[in-house]
Amino acid sequence: MVLNEIEAKAASKLIQKGYLDIPIPSGLDVVAEINRLRKEKNAVILAHYYQTGDIQDIADYVGDSLGLSQQAASTTADLIVFAGVHFMGETAKILNPSKKVVIPDLKAGCSLAESAEPNAFRAFREAHPDHVVITYINCSAEIKAMSDIICTSANAEKIVNSVPLDKPIIFAPDKNLGRYLIKKTGRDMLLWEGACIVHEAFAIDKLLELHKQHPTAKIIAHPESEDHLLKVAHYIGSTTGMINFVKNDSSQEYIVATEAGILHQMLKEAPQKSFIPAPSHEDNTCACSECAFMRLNTMQKLYLCLRYESPEIHVDEAIQRKALLPIQRMLEISKS
Ligand code: 13P
Ligand code: SF4
Question: Where, by residue number, does iminosuccinate bind (predicted)?
Fold first, then answer.
């Protein structure tokens, strides 16, 4: 692709900015352009439930981490545009090493993924050589390469139960999901001390106060939330689990303890019901919890990354080969 002066300047600042900062012509119909380009390039747009509503609506597939991995594993597209955070794009690249994978903003990271630094994780692993390492998908490709099986919140219980009872387990990097799984499965796992900044930001006192004002509302929570919050939840599950729950449950109102982007899908699936985001410690403008990493993605950046096929996700070849096996194990176990 031959770049003009503005495009070349933006490309030189890509790493610093995280995306191609190229002005979009005023009046450009971004939605129509995305639709045209994805057809022309045989691209697939995958989006997580934590993306803004406009991105979810234009995606070919919107889902949770498991569904997105399954889609990435089976896609016939030539170009994968991943509207999510960096580890999600990396997972798609690990599954499709010969395809181009782009994300709207390289700086869309994840506090959980950052909590597992590869050297420290290697040392932890080596200190417990007899342990099976189950790693939550919210981690870097390097950490995946050091893992035995990957899991997501949707299949974590099943993955833990797939390990023979006489095998000790390391679970990383989310300590809250780990503690929840210890309770659910009765397995005494060794936990890594990572956490999600969004799910740890929910304030239990404010939540209980809110519930007093809405006594018939059910509290639904993602298992990345802290134990005291999970204890008061009427339902605990992955983002897909939560959406299915509100669709099929008989209540009319829910307090939702996960990233607020999910409310868009909940309202689409159950428009007659009402959803209140769980309150966080900090009072922000919308009184809800948004993942600052996920929110780096915008429709403009989505258009730019599809148009210029940049920023691209790269994974070292040796790491890709090692990281693929634990992801494949997860996909295999999830089939049954
Ligand atoms: P799921 O997509 O598995 O529900 O997890 C949510 C999440 O934390 C994504 O970052
Ligand atoms: Fe990571 Fe939490 Fe954001 Fe998910 S919501 S991407 S776990 S920081």
Answer: 48, 65, 136-138, 153, 222-224, 239
